[in-house]
Fold this sequence. Notes:
- The protein is globular, with a radius of gyration of 17 Å.
- The chain starts with a helix and ends with a helix.
- It is α/β, with parallel strands linked by helices and about 230 residues long.
- Strand 4, helix 7 and strand 5 (about 155-165) form a beta-alpha-beta unit.
- The protein is built from 10 helices and 7 strands.
- About 40% of the residues lie in helices and about 25% in strands.
- Helix 2 runs antiparallel to helix 5 (about 100-115).
- The chain has a 7-stranded mixed beta sheet with strand order 3-2-1-4-5-7-6, sandwiched between helices.
- The chain has helices spanning about 1-10, 20-40, 45-60, 80-85, 100-115, 125-130, 145-155, 170-175, 180-185, 225-230; strands at about 70-75, 90-95, 120, 135-140, 155-165, 185-195, 200-210.
Amino acid sequence: MKDLIYKTFLSYGYTLTDKQINQFEIYYKFLIEENKKYNLTAITQPLAVVVKHFIDSILPEKEIPQGAKVIDIGTGAGFPGVPLKILRPDINITLVDSLQKRVNFLNMLFEKLELKGEIVHSRAEDFIKNRRETFDIALSRAVAFLPTLSEYLIPYVKINGFVIMYKGEKLQEELELSNKAISTLGAKVEKIEEFYLKEVESKRYILLLKKVKKTDSKYPRGKNLPKTKPII
């Protein structure tokens, strides 16, 4: 497993330290072990986990400033926040998930990996009450409609900070429906980066939004409104 991790990361331009290789191996083994109890991921084959979870998570790493305060909303089994923290120990990471079983998994994982960070059991629209506009970077790999995800993430970011979203083939389609949400929430499209995950023959798009003004305090709305009535 160590060799697979090292070689796969190297093929994407990353040379891992022995410690990082060990951490990713421990992560993989613990994920597979706990998956039997918690149903954390449908992806379990070694190469698939390394590419679709670990490599995919770190794709926007170069966009994250040194020592940045980063929040991962809807982190699930720790993607993308944990691989980013392993690769970039300098970042200050906060992981938020609404399911207690995932939070329990993440607390055990951080202990095993000897990582420091904040792990929070909360919904995005509740945790925001004390942490509005306090992060440099807000990101999410959650599968959600772009206007919905924008409403959950943008309020967490400071002015001149960034929101990072992981998107698939339908990005352009979603962007056309997202102009109102992005501008209403105080951000603008900064850039789109395209990656190709060769082992799984899949394109990945990383969308960067820059926060240019304060977000109205009424966002994100409660009662699941960002999902049921997105800003479009």
